[in-house]
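Pasting as-is:
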Amino acid sequence: MPEVSEITQTEIFEAHLGGKLDISLTTPIDSKRDLSIAYTPGVAQVSNAIHENPDLAKTHTWTNRLVVVVSDGSAVLGLGDIGPSASLPVMEGKSALFKRFANLNSIPLVINTNDVDEIVETLVRLQHSFGAVNLEDISAPRCFELEEKLIEALNMPVMHDDQHGTAVVVLAAMTNGARLLNKDLSSLRVVISGAGAAGIAVCAMLLSVGVRDIIMLDSQGIISSERQDLNSIKAQYAQLTNPRNITGGNAEAFENANVFIGVSSGTIPEEHFARMSKDSMIFAMSNPNPEIDPAIAKKYAKVVATGRSDFPNQINNVLAFPGIFKGALDAGARRITQEMKVAAANAIAELVGDELTNEYIVPSPLDQRVGQKVAEAVARQALLE
């Protein structure tokens, strides 16, 4: 596989020509008999049956295997608020990954509004057309409110992948990193740079598995209960993090830290990383430019991960979201719970097994085992709840 730097603009545009998605038939339509079964008059029998028993829509339409990828285009990759039309290639790509890694049908749906209630109303009106909602590239803090409202309004799995897919794979990577360093997760001192959608979700995930010493950084510095400029979400997490009440500049947050997690677009001075503990982990996940050059990061950390495919230990959401949705749909789950996400993270981590090294803490995104193993773990957990 060529490195990103070797891929030409011509290759990229040719691959996107006409879009990246198509629809295929599950049964042939080659004769009048086929036509009568697939469409009129035969289809009327199925429609009448669903009218009498709505649950049949789950088995006799594609809704129960269809994930809709929804965005308003307000926070697309590193491009920012580029609007719904420009976001569509990304959403098509996400739908393609659902098919490739979980064999789930998926369609992109970009909505021309940034109003949370309007997006909720739109999806409520369309809800009989799909079985799950993957929210994508929606700006914070609106994304938190939107996800919460949709979970309450829709009787189906809903997940904002920028938040939770990232958090799941980070937990998987940290679990194996801690195993490599012979440390307990609960003992780790963690610095999270970025307090947007991904940073908040990563923090929530780590808190849920017993990590307590977490310091979050935003563009104004260390998040603490003494700050008066925090939005409601940051203020909430200021009460749950920074137990040693560290204040001052960002450098102080790195003192004797075991783990750095970068989910912001900024760079971090090298001297900050020099303050970390001897055996540490650096997850510099910003794309395309990590918070610190991975080659430099290796001077200060035993385990280095990025979000890029051309370095070892790629923390890539595709390890998580296809299997999570497949497992939830397989189990008939109404919601994707925190416990289901933890189960997904553990399944990803376990696939590494005895092959664990400092350059192999998570499976490859192309590992064919991942989607199914994650789906099985999520479905098992869903059936326990």
